Amino acid sequence: MDSHEQHSSAIQIANRIREILTKNGISKRQHANTVSRILNLSFSQAHRKLKGQSPWAIHQVNQITAEFGEDVGQLFGAPLADAAPVEGDPVDALLAIGDTRIACHAHIGEALSADQKSDLVAVRINHRWSIHAHDQAPEAPHYAVREVRIAPTVEEIRRLSIAILDDSPEAADELSKYLRAQGFNTYTYYDIDSFNEAVRDNMFDGFVVDWIIGRETSESCMTEIRQSENPDAPILVLTGQLNTSERESEIARAMRTFDILGPYEKPIRLSVIKAAFDRHFNR
Questions:
Q1: Residue 225 — pLDDT band, cuts 50, 70, 90?
Q2: Which helix H or strand E contains 190, and what residues bound it?
Q3: Locate the Response regulatory domain: which residues (predicted)?
Q4: Residue 82 counted as domain residue
């Protein structure tokens, strides 16, 4: 399959997945969050899949259809006739190894009679082919298996994307380096305008925002985040010493208005920031 066909397939699957979500009462705004939860992906990874920008693995489609009790065969068009395929023709199947199911391509032969035995047998239940050891196969007509081919898929690594805003490049870069070493993707910004532009144009899973940038507060940044495509993303707020009642009042108002985490007083302990994200994302 060339890159154009892969892209078209990803879009087709994404459209069908959206139909399933909507059918089951999931609002469009919650589609990415739902896929993120089911597949254990970051919000941005789920969003790319739902836009057809990232390929779908068979097991991911199976997970979503199983979550809502949908038949994956019916989902992607009318199933083929239930008759066995012509011997040697490859079909998509699942290879059963204990409790594990691995996507594969199988060359399936003729139906086996009661006096025939094969090390591996194929069965078709609910329009799905699966391959089993003979003595572990479910009760159903058994077919000979001529060949099984497995093309292992590379799993997407769940790296959450974190945007950092701090007008101290040294502090921002130090935090960025630390979080990257802990398995996050990080993006650093040193001024409010570039940060807000990035929030409008990109999708982030979480934010670390210094409350004072130059002579301004970062309140406009929090407004931008809460109006973004991921409005529920955690916002960790950093502060210098809260040495005035006015500053304390501003932070308190922001905590109520924007549901922020913190404030975390600078200089920050890097491990505390990581722990806050780990707790929020159940890592």
A1: very high
A2: none
A3: 161-281
A4: no
* Residue where one domain finishes, among candidates 50, 75, 100: 75
Helical segments of the chain, H only: 3-23, 31-39, 43-50, 58-67, 72-75, 169-181, 192-201, 219-226, 245-258, 270-281
How many distinct structural domains can be found in the chain? 3
Cα gap 134→234, rounded to integer Å: 51
The answer for residues whose C-beta is within 8 angstroms of residue 93's C-beta and 6 or more apart is 103, 104, 105, 106, 108, 122, 128, 129, 130, 131, 148
Interior angle at CA 61, CA 110 and CA 103, nearest 5: 40
Would 209 be classed as within a structural domain? yes
**Mean pLDDT lowest for which of 134-138, 142-146, 243-247?**
243-247
How many helices and strands (H and E) does the chain possess? Answer: 10, 12
What is the rounded distance in angstroms from the CA atom of residue 175 to the CA atom of residue 270?
6
| pTM, entire model | 0.51
Q: Give per-residue burial for 11-48: e unless 16+ CB within 10 Å, then b.
A: eebbebbbebbeeeebeeeebbbbbbebbebbbbbbbb
Asked if 219 and 256 count as a contact pair (C-beta separation under 8 A), the reply is: no
For range 147-158, the mean pLDDT: 63
Segment 155-161 shows an average pLDDT of 69
- Residues 223-232 have a mean pLDDT of 90
Q: Residue 264 — very low, low, confident or very high, per pLDDT cuts 50/70/90?
A: very high
| Maximal C-alpha separation, the chain | 88
pLDDT at 151: 61
Q: Is residue 257 part of a domain?
A: yes
